[in-house]
Amino acid sequence: MSTRTLVSPAQLARPRGKALYRTVFGLVVTGFTLVFLGPLYWMISSGFKDSQEVVRTPPTWVPQSFAPDNYSRAWEVMDLSTLLFNTLYYAFGALAFQLVLDVAAAYALSKLRPVLGKAILGMMLATLMIPATVLVVPQYLTVLDVPVVERNLLDTPWAIWLPSVTNAFTVFLLKRFFDSIPQEILDAAAMDGASPVRILWSIVLPISRPILGVVSIFAVVGIWKDFLWPMLTLPDPSKQTLNVGIYSLSNGVPVNVLIAALTIASLPTLLLFLVFQRNIMSGLTAGGLKG
Question: pTM of the entire structure?
Answer without folding.
Answer: 0.81
